[in-house]
Amino acid sequence: VQLQASGGGAVQTGGSLRLSCAATTDTFRAYTMAWFRQAPGMEREFVAAIRASGGTTHYADYAKGRVTILRDGAKKTVYLQMNSLRPEDTSVYYCAAGNVITSTLRDSSKYHTWGQGTLVTVSS
User: Residue 54 pLDDT > 80, yes or no?
Assistant: First the structure.
């Protein structure tokens, strides 16, 4: 499977963006899908994940209440809806796919396929 991320852009504080991650094959349905982000000079950090079966979602604490992860199997696409954006959300956002267990889904090294990243810039 290959992943194509899109939807990044520049917004002001309090604005919203919806990121998309399109997969190239139906095997997408078998994987846990996740979003990570990486700011300049910082390590890549977990944002949210959605399990393949059941669609259980998991969020980083800073994302809860502001971010929603969704998957559309028919479109082979995972979305990251981000609201109430803050300047500290400025990062390159990456989607990822993997066969991961719940205890490790926040670990970027457990994902085997990554999209190219999409830049989100939030100005104050």
Answer: no
